[in-house]
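Sequence, C-alpha cells quoted for completeness.
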Amino acid sequence: MADFDGLSDHFILRMYEFIRHEVLSDASAGSHLVGLAARQRADGVLKEINRRGLLCKPIDWPEHLTTGADHCQVAIATLKTTSS
C-alpha cells in the first residue's frame, strides 16, 4: 500500500498499537472520542500488518463501532427523524 511505503514494520505496529490504546482509554473513560475515522485507519493499518505477515493484538472495538454500518449516516438519520 502506498500509504505505508517506506515505513518500518516497527512503526506500522506502533501505529496500530496507538489506536488500540486510544480505544481502551476511551472505553475506560466511558466516552466516545474514538470514532469511525479511527476504525477505518486501524483497518487499513491492520491490512498492511497482515500483508507483511506481522502479528499484533486485535483491537476490542466498542459496540458503536462494530456494527459495520456507517456511524455518521446513522447519526444523520437519527437527527433527521428527531428534528421533524
The chain has a mean pLDDT of 84. The two ends are 44 Å apart (CA to CA).
